[in-house]
Design brief:
Distance between the termini of chain A: 73 Å
Number of strands of chain B: 25
CATH topology of the largest domain in chain B: Immunoglobulin-like
Largest sheet of chain A: 6 strands, antiparallel
Low-confidence stretches of chain A: 16-25
Helix content of chain B: under 10%
Oligomer: heterodimer
Strand content of chain A: 35-45%
Order of helices and strands of chain A: HEEEEEEEEEEE
Distance between the termini of chain B: 20 Å
Shape of chain A: flat
Structural class of chain B: mainly beta
Low-confidence stretches of chain B: 1-20
Shape of chain B: elongated
Number of domains of chain B: 3
Largest sheet of chain B: 8 strands, antiparallel
Number of helices of chain B: 0
CATH superfamily of the largest domain in chain B: Immunoglobulins
CATH architecture of the largest domain in chain B: Sandwich
Radius of gyration of chain B: 30 Å
Number of strands of chain A: 11
CATH class of the largest domain in chain B: Mainly Beta
Strand content of chain B: over 45%
Chain lengths: 163, 344
């Protein structure tokens, strides 16, 4: 066997091994969550809303949760779905979920089924069915439309109030 | 036995307030984590970091006066009692320090104008054993009050002598939030954390409103009550005679058996000064007894059972009740009435 054929074979094998390691070790899409509050500050004499890390976490305080996600590989990624359980001891603020290029649905049954608000119902203690309120939601889901390009990022957010 | 005008103060024992839920307990960890799924993400998808913080201590105490009226007192009275309710509307167990103060002359409350100070005021917390202020109420601070619950607190003062009817004193009660956690011992005063939030630590945030004598968000609350000098009514009831149907005898005395006739006497003492307007005294006939007709005697003079000018009747003003209406009574005065009833 000539050396010239062996070296490309070895390189190919090494490259394949490296790619395999990349696919397992790091997530194709990295996702990060932050909890913040909005405060009003004066900048150049004008009132401006700023987001800061959670400042005073007392019952009744509103928290803004922001999730950023980034495509870390060199190919577009599709079928992206971001699922956020409503945190313990918090009440989701209806209509506050945001996310460019996403469809937003909610679950009221612990994350088994998702639907838009108009289709969500819950059972009352006496067995009747009523439309679900934002306070009934257990999970929020953002379904990204299309693909997220290589190296591209996206952001979704929602607000919830501490019970 | 009924009293007109009503001079009783409603006494609340451990009353649970429901006006505003205290909310999530301080120290509770709230965590958020997100899962992202995608076509190239692998079976479990990607999980985010956990974004978490602990719920801080929201301090909110409310002091309220209980009955919307001044407490009637007489000059020289010791143990004049003003009652308040203190509620913990915060989200952690707290102790509360209690302080009473005399309010300066000229202040107004419940239609009266402050013109004297009480003396030697003490503050005591209702123990829950018996209604009203009594020696079992010995605690001078509120210990370990759970969120959304209350304690009745008494401000007990001496009323000076030499006062006249309508003299008026306003007092305040201030409850200051202390740390909870050590039963039986008042906790350290709370200090608000004003720096940046530490998501891992429970910080203190004052959320109280301004009371009658304190500012908003100062960790305390206050309310006022008043004492009005006037006439006080005291009632006493006793059985002054028993007519045994079989005859009283030396061995068994006068027996209280069916067929016996009892004579009841009700004595009303108006003390202090001033007038009790349109006083009406009434006593319903006890169960299993029957009124003996024409047996009402008021201040030694027999009265008819009919509703006429003699200010007494049976069964007319109120069914099955002896009603005596002395009208306007100027203190000091003692009046009494008696009647007879048969045991069925």
């Amino acid at each position: 066997m000539s050396h010239s054929r062996l070296i490309p074979a070895l390189c190919t094998a090494l490259l394949a091994a490296t790619l395999h390691l990349n696919a397992v070790a790091a997530d194709a899409v990295e996702v990060r969550s932050v909890a913040e509050q909005e405060i009003e500050v004066l900048e150049k004499g004008r009132k401006v809303i700023k987001r800061v890390p959670v400042d005073k976490a007392v019952p009744g305080a509103e928290i803004v949760y922001t999730t950023t996600f980034r495509n870390n590989i060199d190919k577009p990624v599709g079928n992206i779905a971001i699922t956020n359980p409503v945190p313990n001891d918090m009440v989701y603020q209806g209509g506050s979920a945001r996310g460019a290029n996403t469809t937003i649905t909610y679950s009221v049954d612990g994350g088994k089924q998702y639907a838009t608000p108009d289709k969500l119902t819950v059972k009352t203690p006496d067995g009747k069915v009523r439309p679900a309120l934002a306070s009934d939601y257990t999970h929020i889901r953002w379904t990204y439309k299309g693909d997220l390009g290589a190296g591209k990022s996206g952001e979704v957010s929602f607000r919830a109030v501490i019970k | 036995m009924n009293l007109f005008p009503a001079l009783l103060v409603a006494i609340f024992l451990f009353w649970t307030g429901t006006s505003q839920a205290a909310g999530t307990t301080a120290g509770t960890l709230i965590s958020n984590s997100v899962i992202l799924q995608c076509d190239l993400c692998g079976p479990g998808g990607s999980t985010s970091n956990v974004a978490s913080f602990v719920v801080d201590n929201k301090v909110n105490v409310v002091v309220a006066e209980t009955d919307g009226a001044a407490t009637p007192v007489i000059a020289g009275q010791t143990t004049a009692v003003a009652a308040f309710i203190v509620t913990n509307q915060g989200n952690a167990v707290q102790d509360f320090a209690l302080a009473a103060a005399n309010i300066a002359s000229g202040a107004t409350l419940f239609g009266g104008i402050d013109n004297f100070d009480t003396s030697a005021c003490i503050v005591r917390v209702e123990s829950g054993l018996t209604a009203g202020f009594d020696p079992t109420d010995s605690a001078a601070f509120i210990d370990e009050l759970v969120p959304d619950s209350s304690r009745t607190v008494y401000v007990v003062c001496n009323v000076p002598t030499g006062l006249v009817a309508a003299d008026f004193a306003i007092v305040s009660l201030t409850a200051t939030t202390l740390q909870g956690g050590a039963p039986g011992v008042p906790g350290a005063p709370l200090v608000q954390d004003t720096g940046a939030d530490d998501p891992a630590a429970v910080q203190v945030v004052f959320a109280d409103a301004a009371g009658s004598d304190d500012a908003a968000r100062d960790g305390r609350h206050s309310a006022r009550d008043a004492f009005r000098v006037g006439a006080l009514l005291t009632l006493g009831k006793s059985v002054i005679n028993v007519q045994d149907p079989f005859g009283c005898n030396a061995a068994s005395g006068c027996r209280i058996v069916p067929g016996a006739i009892l004579t009841y006497r009700i004595e009303a003492v108006a003390s202090g000064s001033g007038t009790l307007d349109e006083l009406v005294l009434s006593d319903p006939i006890p169960a299993n007894m029957s009124y003996v007709p024409a047996s009402i005697v008021v201040d030694g003079t027999p009265r008819t059972d009919a509703a006429d000018a003699d200010q007494a009747d049976f069964g007319i003003t109120q069914p099955n009740t002896v009603t005596v209406s002395p009208g306007n009574v100027s203190a000091p005065l003692t009046t009494w009435f008696s009647f007879r009833a048969l045991i069925n």
